[in-house]
Give the backbone structure.
Amino acid sequence: MTAALPCLALALALLCALRTAAEVPVQPGFDTQKFAGKWHFAATVSNCSVYLKMKDGMKSPIATISFTPEGNLAMKLAWPLPDRCQRLELLFQRSGQAGHYMAAQEKRELRVMETDYSHYAIVHETQHSGQQPSTMLQLLTREEDVSPQLLQKFEELIPTVGLTKAMLAVLPKSDQCTAAIS
């Protein structure tokens, strides 16, 4: 019986983690017009193996977000790399609930968990490719600087999505890609 206790505890922990991932909230009354515009990635936390290898050398990407007439989310990203600025364009289809989007070709799911529209947004992303799905939580800010209070709020959310603080990268500012996103 005593040997079964650790297995039971592990099973319960996994069940809770799966339940938590399934219950990621979306910003109530999400307003696409207020959310559109330029965002800086201030902090990111993820269990993605590629991210974990690169996180200590990453700099803050910039994104411009807009919405199509159908309500889909279009994101233009400028990602600072050591020798250049990498540009990406992503399109997420609205899933039926404003603030919840899917990218079918990449098996990605994006949810705007919380935002005040003018200062910050917390975005949850799941990618279902390969054996193990990866989870990412991102803190976006309108300005490049992030307040200690906002960073603390973000850090408190990390365990609620099944991630750890060891996976966190607070991304340093970079003006390397500013012209690429304007």
User: Anything to note?
Assistant: The two ends are 63 Å apart (CA to CA). Residues 1-21 have pLDDT under 50 and may be disordered. Residues 41-181 form a domain with the Lipocalin fold (CATH 2.40.128.20).
